[in-house]
Amino acid sequence: MSTEPLFLRACQGLPTERTPIWLMRQAGRFMPEYRAVRAKADFWTLCKTPELACEVTLQPIDAFGLDAAIVFSDLLTVLPPMGCPVHFGKGHGPEVENAVDGPADVDRLRDFDAREDLAYVGDAIRMIVGALPADVPLIGFAGAPFTLASYLIEGGSSRQFMKTKTFLHQEPEAADRLFSRLASVVIDLLNLQIDAGCRAVQIFDSWAGCLDPDDYARWGVRYTRRIVEGVKRPGIPVIVFAKGTGTYLDLVAQTEADVLGVDWTLPLDRARALVGPKPALQGNLDPARLLGTWETLRPAIDRVLDAAGDGRGHIFNLGHGIDRHTPVDNVRRLVEHVQSTSGARRP
Amino acid sequence: MSTEPLFLRACQGLPTERTPIWLMRQAGRFMPEYRAVRAKADFWTLCKTPELACEVTLQPIDAFGLDAAIVFSDLLTVLPPMGCPVHFGKGHGPEVENAVDGPADVDRLRDFDAREDLAYVGDAIRMIVGALPADVPLIGFAGAPFTLASYLIEGGSSRQFMKTKTFLHQEPEAADRLFSRLASVVIDLLNLQIDAGCRAVQIFDSWAGCLDPDDYARWGVRYTRRIVEGVKRPGIPVIVFAKGTGTYLDLVAQTEADVLGVDWTLPLDRARALVGPKPALQGNLDPARLLGTWETLRPAIDRVLDAAGDGRGHIFNLGHGIDRHTPVDNVRRLVEHVQSTSGARRP
Asked: Which residues of B touch A306 (CB under 8 A)?
């Protein structure tokens, strides 16, 4: 087998001796070590201080021996330099200032140079890459245009995304300008992350699942594919995770991503049937399973491994970020179970 | 063709001269007539006063000529007589008192007689049936056990349903007792509605889509099927709408419902491929489409009709309740378009 790290080989559909595993939001509140750092610094300070971002990025690698790290940062880093500061209040998710309420607001968004305004992301990545074991690649990430636009238009989180969809359906030309701007900003950010040392990047379209297939084709695929094209380099896999899109995962595959994230509502064998043999699949345990007993958790893990067949082109993950109330011990057992049993499934 | 109402024939997969249409939450805030009544009475008063429930139930029938009415009531009517009062605050959804926090709380829930404690539902239905045109059947409804349990366990609305799932995974025996109680209460309520004159019933599993397929099979299918069996009578179709379950709609079909509700993420031709020829399908326009222009709305309606093939066994509806900001004129045009064009699609 190649000496390329396990995670990167799996992303490219190459043979692996076992299934690699990492967990979305693995540097997070479920870890006491993370909470200790967070007690001393607010969220943005953590993101913007390379030493702190590096420390929390490494915590789950040290604790659980995961097969990939993901830079500690936030989906919404690109909004403040566009003129829309983001505040993280208690419990109700982020609040975005200067929300986009009409076409004129789109044209008021500021252009910026990622290498200046987001220099702190590159600084953190260089420090993390220097500290990580050589066989643990670092993943960079950004939000997809639809998800970023939803925060800009709703002014924060939403359940139904009515304002966002109304904007798309009433002002398609302004929405196209907005999505194109966001795609270009995301391309710059991801390229900055790759230049700084990330060996894979993930595009999160966390709220895409609220769209019907036609809207996803128009507002999801189109701009996400532009990003994939804008960042693709040999040996640097691009992962697209469009949560809630299991009924039309074949459209998500049209983004030409190397890897598709899958949430827990679509078994991986059904996902494979929808997208064909090419893209690798990442997922897809329900994070809620980690809050149950080992007796209910273990068979759920095995069902994910079973649905992935011989495991080729599969990266084990959750179907969404890990919950803050997750017992650390369940995470340890999950990682150990996947790493110790998945090899025996190889043909 | 039979003289049975169009909607009932479509529910049974019988030939129809055109596609029937009704809209979830059609008696609602988007109508000025509704807001006028609501200005005089709070939500529970509206539900519990037969004259008012009758008035708002008929408003959309009078205004738009829809093919079915649905009794004005709430999913959570069964909770207060179980000892868990429900309050509708502003903006944040219902709040449920005496939330279920552990197995002991399940056993503390009160038994009640639907014919006494929910007599107001029957009173409203008899009045509505007397006032409705003979060719417009009245639909009764209730919540499915999982959705009801989620309100009881979370104490209100939720985004991730972590408490509910943790309860299922840690206390499966107590959860079984809870779900069995809820199934039995729902059977009583639906039978009361049918006895009072409803000609179809719908079981709403609004939050089922947060479950992985295995949990849905265990906690959705099992108890919902028990309800379907407990209320089935010749000529009274049972509709199951489990929102967000498009990736495993074949499991929802195992409830043996006559009609399956489908949300807008799964095109109806894909739904049909998953469930086979038997159940009728109800849906599935994204309610957000109704907030756009007619230029974007009309093709979206036509895509739904196209995906339903020759239209047999299709009831047009939204994929979720109508939004309060929906322009009345778009609803009028939607109903007119479906009623005037769908007949030409018949073979």
From this structure: none
Domain at A6-345, CATH class: alpha beta
Domain residue spans of chain A = 6-345
Report the pLDDT value the prediction gives residue A2, as an integer from 0 to 100. 62
Find all residues with CB under 8 Å of A267, minimum gap 6, and list them.
A284, A303, A307, B213, B247, B248
Count helices and strands in chain B by DSSP H and E runs = 16, 9
Residue from B34, B67, B151, B226 carrying the catalytic annotation: B151
Which ranges of B205-327 does DSSP label H, i.e. alpha helix? 213-215, 222-231, 249-253, 268-275, 294-307
Query: Would strands A200-205 and A280-285 be described as parallel, antiparallel, or unpaired?
Result: unpaired
Segments in chain A below pLDDT 50: none
Residue B334 near residue B297, CB atoms below 8 Å: yes
> What pLDDT does B335 receive?
98
If we measure between CA atoms, which residue out of A206, A233, A98, A84 comes closest to residue A144?
A206
Tokens describing residue B340 = 């005037």
The tokens describing A224, both together, are 């996400």
Instruction: State the catalytic residue, choosing from A18, A25, A289, A312.
Output: A25
Distances in Å between the alpha carbon of A227 and those of A112, A181, B20, B308?
17, 11, 43, 35
ipTM of the complex, rounded to two decimals: 0.95
SS3 A2: coil
Length of chain A in terms of residues written: 347
DSSP designation for A193: H
Enumerate residues 6+ apart whose C-beta is below 8 A from A90. none
Is the overall model pTM greater than 0.90, yes or no? yes
A214 touches chain B (CB under 8 A): yes
> Interhelix angle for A50-64 vs A119-131, to 10°?
40
The DSSP element (H or E) to which B143 belongs, if any, is strand B138-143
Cβ-contact A225, A251 below 8 angstroms: no
Contact B244 A267 (CB under 8 A): no
For the stretch A76-129, pLDDT in tens is 999 999 999 999 877 678 999 999 999 999 999 999 999 999 999 999 999 999
Picking from B54, B60, B55, the residue whose alpha carbon sits closest to that of residue B25 is: B60
CA A143 and chain centroid, separation: 8
What's the distance, CA A176 to chain centroid? 23
- What is the distance between the alpha carbons of residues A121 and A106, in angstroms, rounded to a whole number? 25
* Nearby residues of B333 by Cβ (< 8 Å), 6 or more positions away: B294, B297, B298
Q: How confident is the model at residue B92 (pLDDT cuts 50, 70, 90)?
A: confident
- Contact (Cβ atoms closer than 8 angstroms) between residue A241 and residue A203: yes
Query: How far is the CA of B255 from the CAs of B97, B217, B230, B261, in angstroms?
Result: 31, 10, 12, 12
Contacts of A161 in chain B (CB under 8 A): 288
Angle of the A268-275 helix axis to the A294-307 helix axis, nearest 10: 20
Rg (CA), chain A: 19
Tally A–B CB contacts below 8 A: 108
**Assigned token pair, A125:** 């990545």
Helices vs strands, H then E, count in chain A: 16, 9
